[in-house]
Amino acid sequence: VDSLVKNVDDALVQGVNVVKTFKAVKEFAGEGDEEKDDHRTAQLKRAMDSLLQTQARYAAHKRVLNAIASELNSPSAGTLEPDELSKRVQHDCTNAADADASRADGSRNHKYQEFLEEAGLKKADDVDDEVQMTQATFDPHCQLTKAVFENPMRSTPCFQRGSSRCVFSKDAIHSLIQQGRGGARCPTVGCPYGGNITAGDLKACKDTERKVKRWLQADARERMRRDREADVIDDEVEDADDGAMDCTQID
Question: What's the average model confidence in pLDDT over 107-115?
Fold first, then answer.
C-alpha cells in the first residue's frame, strides 16, 4: 500500500509539472487558443481529482488493514476463518475507502493546491485565507541578510533534528560556508545540531519558497489597498476644499 500511495504522490507531482509546462509554452509562444487551453486544464483537473480519490482509498485500505492486524495480534483476539477474514477485510476496506474518497477535496494536499494555483483554478477566497495565515505566522526574512529570502535553502542535518528554522538565502549561506573553508556552524540561535554544515547539506526549501511567494503577494495587495485608501482620502480632501472655495465665493 505504501508503494501505491507513493505512486499516486509521484503522479500528483507530474500533474503540477504538466500545468507548469503548459504555462511556459504559452508564455514563450504568446497568445494561444484559450478554448484548447481550458479544455486541457479541465482534463488535467479531472485526472488530478481522480488521483486524490485514489490516494484517499489507498490510505483508507492501509488504515483498515493495520487496525485488523493489530486486533488479530491482540492476546484476547478470537480466531477467524479465512473466508470470514476475507469478507471482513473487503467490507471494511470498501466502506472506509468510499467514505474517505467522497471527502477528498485536496484542501490539505500541497501538491494539489499548487496545481490549482498554477492552473488558475484556485478560488480567491481560498488564496486570501492562506495568504492571511502566512502573513500572521511566517517571517520571510533571511536571518543572515535580514532581507526577504532569495532561493531559500534548508540545512538537512538541522531539519533531521527537528529544527524548521534553519533556512537561509542561498548566496548568504554559501558565502558563510566558504568563509569557514567548506563548513560552518549553523547560525540559527538554539539550533539542536551541534556540528558544522557544508554545501552538501543544503537542499532547496520549496515550502519556504512557496510561503515567500504568498507573503509577497499579500504585501503587494496590502500596498495597493493602502494606496487606494490614500487616493480616496485625497479626493475627499480636494472635494472639501472645492466646496469651501465655492462657499467663500458665494459669500
Answer: 78
Task: Give, for 10, the enclosing helix (H) or strand (E).
Answer: helix 2-29
Are the beta carbons of 121 and 130 closer than 8 angstroms?
no
List pLDDT tens digits, range 127-155.
444 555 455 567 899 999 999 999 999 99
- Contact status, residue 19 vs residue 116, Cβ threshold 8 Å: no
Q: What is the pLDDT of residue 178?
A: 94
d(CA 248, CA 179): 71
**CA atoms of 84 and 90, how far apart (whole Å):** 10
> What is the maximal distance between C-alpha atoms in the chain?
104
The rounded distance, in Å, linking the Cα atoms of 203 and 193 is 16
CA distance 62 to 145: 45
Under 8 Å between Cβ of 104 and 51: no
Neighbour-count burial for 20-59, b at 16+ CB within 10 Å, e otherwise:
eebeeeeeeeeeeeeeeeeeebeebbeebeebbbbbbbbb
How far apart are alpha carbons 127 and 118 in whole angstroms? 12
Which distant-in-sequence residues (6+ apart) come within 8 Å of 115 by Cβ? 12, 15, 16, 19, 44, 45, 48, 121
- Alpha-carbon dihedral of residues 42, 43, 48, 52, nearest 10 degrees? 90
DSSP state of 32: -
